[in-house]
Amino acid sequence: MSYPQATCRFFGDLIDLLTLPDEAGVVVRTFDESPSVKDQIEACGVPHTEVDLLLVNGVPVGFDHRIADGDRISVYPFFNEMDVSHMSLVRPEPLPEMRFLVDINLGKLARYLRLLGFDTLSDGRWHDAELVAIAVDQQRMLLTKDRPLLKRSAVTHGYLVRADVPLDQTIEVIRRFDMTSSIKPFGRCMECNGDLRTVEKADIDHVLEPLTRRYFDDFRQCVQCRRVFWKGSHHRRLAAVIEEVRARTT
After folding, report:
1. 5-76, what's its fold?
2. Domain residue limits, the chain
3. Sorting pLDDT into bands at 50, 70 and 90, what band is 1?
4. 86 pLDDT above the threshold of 70
5. Are 210 and 204 in contact (CB under 8 A)?
């Protein structure tokens, strides 16, 4: 007895995500019912959030399209140089603004994004279901290295981070969402994501260490966690990070 088959061809960096690597990006799927195209591409290892355009036999379809024997499925990644929104049935509506939600495994990425001025939530106490709910309710882009998390149907805006080094991850995200021109450093607390506001030295004098009180006069304070920041040696290290991000994403 022979079972129906469909041929999936993946393009671009989606090929690197395939469970069974194939240099040509071609995977033949065998099935015994009529599965959705979403189920088939995710079974190959590619979360639906990574797909920008989906064709079956050359015709644009949505993720819920049911495949049949002999179907040819073409799966395309995000198009940096081309707008396919007029034909794609899988690209979600753009977020009102680019705000992020980062899972616990990417904690330093969250800190770097805040350093660059981007609204970024992260909390190690949140489980997968909570992350999904927050991403949906607050309309945030979910950043993770957890593929099953991005395969959840409720997640419409998500990105699977490829790099392993935090600085490289940051550069990857800035490039992916074309955000170099939106970088506004030192405006957010790297610890809690709160806004930083200029504060008079006299107002926070009681929390300063003696040497800090003696050598520094310009301070900022987080409106949320109340941490105090100044341009010490740590500021120079962070400024170097910002310059590297700009240099590698421009």
Report:
1. Ubiquitin-like (UB roll) (3.10.20)
2. 5-76, 92-190+232-250
3. low
4. yes
5. no
